[in-house]
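Memo to structure team: turn this sequence into structure tokens by end of day. - J.P.
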Amino acid sequence: VFSGTMTTLAPFVPLAFWNSLIGHFMFFLPITLIITLLASLVVAYIMNPVFAVDFMKPHIEGEHDHPRFDKKTNRTLLILGGLTAFSYLMFFTGKWTMGMGNFLVLCIALYLLNHFVLLNVIDKFQNNVWPRFQNWYAKWLERAVKRPVTILLGTFGLFVLAIVLMSVLGKTPVFFPSGDPNFAYVYVTMPIGTDQAATNEITKKIEQRVAKAVEPDKDVVTSIISNVTKGVTDPTDEDQGDYENKGKVTVAFVEFGKRDGKDTKQILTKIRNSVQGFPGVKIAVAQENAGPPVQKDISIELIGDNLDSLVKTGNRLKSYLAKQNIAGIENLVADVQNDKPEIVFDVNRERANREGLNTAQISQSLGIAVFGAKAGDFRNTKEDDYQIKVRALQNQRGNIDELRNMKITYRDMGSGGMIRQVPISAFTDVRYTSTYSNIKRKQQRRVLTLGSSVVKPYNPNEVNANILRAINNFKKSDDIIIRQGGGQEDQLEAVTFLGGALATSFGLILIILMIQFNSIGKTLIIISEIFFSIIGVLLGVSIFGMTMAIVMTGVGIIALAGVVVRNGILLVEFTDMLIEQGMNVHDAVVEAGHTRMTPVLLTATAAILGLIPLAVGFNIDFVGMFTNFEPHIHFGGDNVAFWGPLAWTMIFGLGFATVITLILVPCMYLIRVNLKNRLFGKKETKIANHKLETAEA
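Reply from structure team:
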């Protein structure tokens, strides 16, 4: 029990040390499972023995053949009936809902069904059907252990076939799965320097088009909200500032179960098509990010030292990629632009010095006029502090002539400390120019990023692969580096970590098995199940045409490692026990498979049945079912989109690993013993004879 639990727990230990945004998002999964598995040891070693003593009783042959209302049954029904009557009484007094009473009625019905029908059916199954199945399996196992090498080579051949099928039928993997949108976002970007009122007018027109586009599907839309200046950037963007030239339209959909089968991805496409045709306006349409905060699907980084050269190369690359007609790119946008309007006050230092002023005083005066300066604090009765800022009136700070004629009040120390007022125009000249919107750096080098989302249903990895091929043929100067970052960078980091986590899991399981069996051969037999269980994952994903999600599938394979090893421990441990009791190896592996088939299948079946609702997205409202008789049963939703790949990975892998455990493990055990006998025949024979004599004595 302890070794099996530790091998199940071990793969989740490295996942708890995933130090990234994705790791922080997934952190609660390994921690929850580790705590749960440790708690299961307490249940197994303390609580189960106590319950077994108090509640378990010997099985009596034929005790369920003629069920009747005996004393125990009547007592149970009386207790359940009393609780049901009390629940309905509390409902009529208005203190409880009807749900508890209905639930107890269901409990009574299930108890009667179990007592009069199921117990008898289960007895017949255990005494008739299951032994036949065990004998059928034992016959096939007898045939398999006669050709153990053939079975092992056939498994390797199946692994090659799985890889071939995956390469032929498999779809391109995605980083994180995404389901039907719950929100649609329309990001509006006007030219830099656009007034907030102008941005608002365009955003209103876009909102009207969006409302018209979703009109046929208004029954699944809850709201359409517009923002200007505030809250207008992508939530995954590092920059969350306020921009007067930006707006956002948000469309919220009803929850999945109330959409009556309508696909919100199609509505998203309608919205995208409806907002085209605004000259000079950059528009991007996206859905919410259901997973961890990751960067954009497409992120092309240009790294160099000369910002002018970066901007020019970025514009050329953007035009070059547009000519390549790469499908799936929504709208490539550079995060650095050189068209930001700027007003420059050129200070004539000679004239300023004659007036007794320096550039610091002039810039400070302009800054106070435009942005304001703290004059004090205001505290209300709730003890909330508010800063009091003083700045020029709107008509002054929004008019360049007013700013030029603004007088600077200062004390001229050159004329004996006399207070003077001099207009800024006396020693400055105004110049209108353009500058960069911002400057970003990575590892102390300037970087410009071309970013875009990928339009559904295109695969981000396929689109990025096409972009990479195009970039390789793009001509650039030697001082500029072009690389793919963003989602591709996050994906590479995740794959690297998951590979290391899988290797660490192997190491931890290896240590536990070596301590348990003190044998390299037995350890390799059990741990090879992890390798062969991947066959089931590859076959399932390729045959059923599923898209592999890198993170969730990777986590599923790591979690699968501990589960399949546990079943292998059961077989190998029981085989060792039979051999120690004097049984020959051939009979021992067959008997171990025949005897341990039940717990192995029970473990696998229980895990698979528990994962199926998560895999298919089975949803049921138990409260509604018992209270209003409305279970609201439906399949799909956000959970299946996100957790489905993990669940299917474990279902496919565990299902195939069960066959591996019951067929291949006995064969590999026999191969190991035969190989040892050939290499160390005399020594092994003496040890075996000594054990046999000890057992007979």
